[in-house]
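Quarterly update from the structural biology core.
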Amino acid sequence: MLERKFYLVIATVISLLFAIMLPNFFAPLGIHFFAPPLIMALYFFRRATILWLALAAGLFLDALCISPRFGFFGTTYTVAIALIYPLRLLFFRDWLLTVPIVTLFFSLVTILSEQMFAFLFDIPGPLTTGASLIFSLLLAPLADAIWALIFFALPLGALHYYLRPKTYGKVEV
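Predicted structure, tokenized:
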């Protein structure tokens, strides 16, 4: 368990660095930088703890971005995690497939909750035109899933493979 939380800490540090240094490069894609660590945390923490983590990640992004209102991302991340939390029972802890797939669902729910809160606060949301509807509901979640696969699932899976104890056919009695 401690070993897996170590990978969660690494994923969070990677997300922090990407969120600080690269938001301008990935702004057109709408990448949710903290989605993979939040998805990984679903399997380690209780519901209340993961909701607090989602709120903290969203507020961190609110502090970095010129978002519509402070607390906008914090609220949308918290709502998305609250809705996705039962989904963790349908997937195993296998990071190679689970993290990208659940990240795709997280991204989709986050975009829909962003639109809901944008409508409530009377600010422009991600689903304003037909082209943005297609992009936001199809391409952006797919970009988040590819982001999670390339920058989190594959490197952490490789790290886990190389750090695991080597038995070489030894049988413990």
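The radius of gyration is 17 Å.
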